[in-house]
Amino acid sequence: MHTFYSHIPEFFTLLTLEMILGVDNLIFISLICNKLPNNIRNKTRISGIALALVMRFLMLCGASSILSMHRAVIPLLDVSPRNLFMIAGGGFLLYKSTKETFSEIFPLKEETTVRTFPDMFWSILQIIGIDLMLSLDSVISAFGITSSVLMICVVFTIYAAVAMLLSKDLGNVIQKYAGFKIIALLFIGVLGAVLFMDGLGVKVNHNYLYIALLFSITVETLNCLHKKYHNKKL
């Protein structure tokens, strides 16, 4: 019993950390699923998050390998697999953000071709890939807090359940209010730049990202409330 209570602070520390660090992942999932037809959005969201959770468990099983990924594979350049992973993932997020922001501001004619399965499959792959990239540091950090793999698995499972519940509502908000969608897209772009720099060895405190995101959302929320109030008066 004493052992159980002694692990409670570690559990809540891990859970809080995962919920905070998972915000960027939730935003990405919402943006990806909003591009899909309504009839497959929920299925894609749940499948992607569930498979990403399985991949996280596999990542935990190879935790010793993950912790040794800082070893350089290109000694002259001091480049490790983790660096390459971050550079590739950050570059992808930068490309995705730029492309989606451009198409949001200058919308092109929508394609009439229905490609349900390929689009769903590609979206699930993106969710899994980005989740793995964004969770790599949280897995390493988790082992710095506790050595209990079971506890980390429980925390990841709780986060996945919360993500399944919240990503749909977040997606609806992003879809309804264009301002929030632009903020989300730009946030993904900045996150991509930070991950890219991380891969190059330049460390940027992620707290600055979350403060900027919170400030932008607050301003846009006040702007929406202002418009709603004045439209009622008119």
Automatic annotation (TrEMBL):
Main location: membrane
Topology in membrane: Multi-pass membrane protein
Cell compartment(s), UniProt: Membrane
Highest taxon of source: Bacteria
Listed transmembrane segments: 12-34, 46-67, 142-166, 178-196, 208-225
InterPro entries tied to this protein: Integral_membrane_TerC
Keywords: Membrane, Transmembrane, Transmembrane helix
GO cellular component term of the entry, any: membrane
A Pfam family assignment: TerC
Family: Belongs to the TerC family.
Protein name: TerC family protein
Organism: Anaplasma platys
Lineage: Bacteria, Pseudomonadati, Pseudomonadota, Alphaproteobacteria, Rickettsiales
